């Protein structure tokens, strides 16, 4: 996660206060009278990226992206390729738990610029999930994770199931509960929180801001997007569910919330824009399906290569 300017950003903000016509050049802020505030290359790049993000607004308002444009961009060869790569990358980042394989969701914000631009925002809990998997049978290590990274642990364990288990484990063992039963309880708890954590994509403001200043944006702004990744079956990757009630709630409150749902031979694209400012209603969501033999072969080969999941 990039640092957001820090002290330098604060000084730049103080400098521009009260000045008229402040603009951004390659390496400085310059005011209307020609006075300059030199910027480090890092902050200049962040400000340029932020400007490119907010600069999408006029073009978006002048010609709001239509459903037909979104589908045409997503189902074009380049659009399909970018969606396939996101599924491939999240499959590579899969987590193996005591009860199976979990592929995490990916997401971010999208723009239309000739094609579909899926800007990814790293989800705030993704970094800690592999560590929880690694420590899955090690209660002491799990407790240490809770102490060292309380915010992330709380985000993946919002109901405190794992926290409760860790707090009560010693007492259970002292009272004579068998070690096997306690271990099984831990397996079930870990599996539950991992499935919940990977089944959701949290848009937190800090990650969003980091993505805004670390990426270059162009074209017209579409809105949020996230994936519903494949499930591992015996013979290959199988499809996921459509938009969830929380997905629809986000669209009602925030506007567009594109959902890309994996299928073994393609993906379904759900356009949730019609829900903006209205009520959650799956019947109003626009759904289009992309299917191809190329996709089926691509993901079957990927599954077969990682046989023994
Ligand atoms: Zn979803």
Q: Please state the structural category.
A: alpha+beta
Largest β sheet strand count, sense and barrel closure: 6 strands, mixed
User: What's the alpha carbon Rg, rounded to whole Å?
Assistant: 23 Å
Count all strands and give the number.
Answer: 13
Can you list the ligands bound to this structure? Answer: zinc ion
| Helix and strand run | HEEEHHHHEEEEHHHHHHEEEHEEEH
Give the overall shape, derived from the CA principal axes.
Answer: globular
Summary keywords:
binds zinc ion, 309 residues, alpha+beta, globular, 3-stranded antiparallel sheet
How would you portray this structure in words?
- The chain is α+β, with helices and mostly antiparallel strands.
- The protein folds into 3 domains: 19-54, no CATH class; 64-123 and 202-305; 129-198, no CATH class.
- It is 47% helix and 19% strand.
- The protein has 13 helices and 13 strands.
- The strands form 4 sheets. Strands 7-6-8-11-12-13 form a 6-stranded mixed beta sheet. The chain has a 3-stranded antiparallel beta sheet with strand order 1-2-3. Strands 4-5 form a two-stranded antiparallel ribbon.
- Strand 1 and strand 2 (28-30) form a beta hairpin.
- Helix 9 (161-174) packs antiparallel against helix 10.
- The chain is globular, with a radius of gyration of 23 Å.
- The protein starts with 6 loop residues before the first helix and ends with a helix.
- The relative contact order is 0.13.
- The mean pLDDT is 91.
- Zinc ion (ZN) binds at residues 226, 228, 244, 247, 259.
